[in-house]
Amino acid sequence: MEKFDEQQGSFASDHLYLVCFLLCRGHEITGAERVGRRVHFQFRQSTDLSADVAGFMAGAAVPARQFCFELLKLKRTLNTGVQ
After folding, report:
1. Fewer CB in 10 Å around end: N or C, the chain?
2. Exposed / middle / buried, residue 21 (Cβ in 10 Å: 0-12, 13-18, 19+)
3. Where exactly are the structural domains of the chain?
């Protein structure tokens, strides 16, 4: 689930591959929240972020090795217990 919050200037997603894609594009996670069994990762809203989310949905690509590395780091974060 993706959610833009205009008032707080943030974007949140529980889509692991989208989150990894955004990390590869240079965006930083600003927070994380566990909602049931899912974790919603938060980013600072910007026009670049919006364009990258749209790019991901349209099939944009990032280097596979970098993507795999970001996915591994994210899974380790999840396994260490995001609150």
Report:
1. C
2. buried
3. 2-79
E strand or H helix at 12, and its extent?
strand 10-13
What is the Cα gyration radius of the chain? 12
Three-state secondary structure call for residue 44: strand
pTM of the full structure: 0.87
Average pLDDT of span 53-80: 94
Q: Which neighbouring-strand residues pair with 4?
A: 11
What pLDDT digit, counting tens, does each position of 4-55 carry?
A: 766 678 899 999 999 999 999 999 999 998 888 899 999 999 999 999 999 9
**DSSP state letter for 41:** E
Question: CA 7, CA 16: separation in Å to the nearest integer?
Answer: 24
